Structures are given as C-alpha cells and as structure tokens.
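Let us work through a complete example step by step.
Step 1: write down the sequence.
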Amino acid sequence: MAESASKLAENACVQFGVLPDMTFVFPKEGDAKILAKKAKLSKNSEVFKTQFASGDSALIQITDISFDIFNAMLKYIYEGKITVKEDNFLELLYVARKYFLYGLTHEVITFGKNFINETNLDIYFEELEKFDIKILICHVKFVCYRNPLVIIKRLNFKSKADMRLLKIILNGNSLVCSEFDLYKEIIDMINRTAEDLPWDDVKTEFAKMIKLIRFPTMTVDQLIKCSKPPSLLTVQQVVDLLLWVQEKTYSDTLQLFSSSPRNNPIQPINKCSRCRGNSIRCSSCSNNY
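Step 2: predict the structure and record it as tokens.
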C-alpha cells in the first residue's frame, strides 16, 4: 500500500492551463498534486471564489475527495468534458454539490436517472437520500411505484434504509400491483430477512407501516389469507376488516387504514436496450409514458 502511494506521489502531478498559481495536494494518496489557475476556478465556482478571497494559501490539502474525482472535476471546468460511470457518479455528485457546479450536477443527475432502476435502487438509495435532490427523489418514487414487488424482493427488514424505501412504496397513491400482492411480498421479505427475530418484535417494528397497506380494499378471500400466520394483523383487526368488506360495518380498526383504492396506476413497461425504461420519450422504442 505504501509502495503504491509513493508511486502515485512520484507520477501524479497534473497541471491545468498555463502559469498555475494554485496547488491541491492529496495526502491520502501519496501527496499527489493538481495545479490550476485561481481565476479559472473562481469564475466557475462561487465556492472556490470565496475560498480564495478569504486569503487561503496557494496550497490546499484535499482529504474528502479522491485525486481521480477532483481531477475529473477540474477537467470538466477547463474542458467541459466528463465521463460519468456507475463507479464514480456518487462521488462526482458530491464534488459537484460541494463546489456548486450546476452543469456537472446536471450531468450526474441525468446519468443517475438513466442508471437507477428497480434492480439497483436498494444499493444506491441510502447515498442518494443524503443528497436530498428533489429531481432524484422524484425519480426514486417513480421507480418505486412502477415496480414495487421487484424492489421489495431485494429489501432487508433489518436495514433502516431499506425500510425507508419500503415506506416510499407504501405511501404512494399509485401502484401497479394489488394491495394483497404487496402484503404477500412484504411477508416474504420479512420471513427471508428477519431471521430469528421474534414475530412480536417484527409486528412492533412494523406497527406504523402496516397502516399504509390498504386492507379495506381487499376481498374477503384475500383478508382471510392475510390472517394466516405469520400475520401482521391482529385477530380483531381481521374481524373488523371482514365486517367492513362484507357489510360496510364501521369499527375503530377502520380509523387505522385507508379504504380508498390507490388511483392512477403507473403501468409496467418493457424496457428497450437504449432507454432501459427511464426516458419519458425514447426515440428507439414506442414506450411513451
């Protein structure tokens, strides 16, 4: 490790433009250096402008951003070029937000919207959540509402981030599956990942989210199946729900659950190899949604 860091220090010295007056040093990567012009950086980033105006020296140590990502950011500032990939888009988003580089932020968000889907949302959700970017959160919700069962199959009951993702699904007014299929998939997920956690503890943990499942919209047969162990419903809740579905008899249980069906369902789509189902209008397929 020390040998590779030393080699990096010997070889990694990148210069942008002529007559640079600013040096960035990366102590975690063998003191690799990047040289640049203050005026160029200040023109493109208010953060750099403020930093340099505050009297910072001509040498700044960078410890929260890797050499490669910082280098890519400066290349974007100087040349307008950037390659956003699966293994760097989160780091690029961090650096773009830190230095208020709106063009770079747009590039990364565009990549994220095309890359993030129901098969990898659980992997990246926690990191995306930290940025709190409205357009990305809207995309997360869209993916959740479009393929909820696929996502739930990948969740872990013991992961707080995964349960926040599940809450987004349950909070939605639009779903492509039935409430019963949603409930079944959640039960399967709990059985698969809760391991030796006592069921009473599971029900306690899930107490608030269960209210987001619209049991009053299910059929009698579905409710009976939902009552079979392991069930997230109490016996009294099942009885009250059955009375509502069969006879529209109101009870205190009905205060817990919404009896309105979710509307405006988002239809599942067949993804083409180009847009992967994430473009509003794709020129290479006929899926317009």
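Step 3: interpret the result. Residues 1-7, 267-271, 277-289 have pLDDT under 50 and may be disordered.
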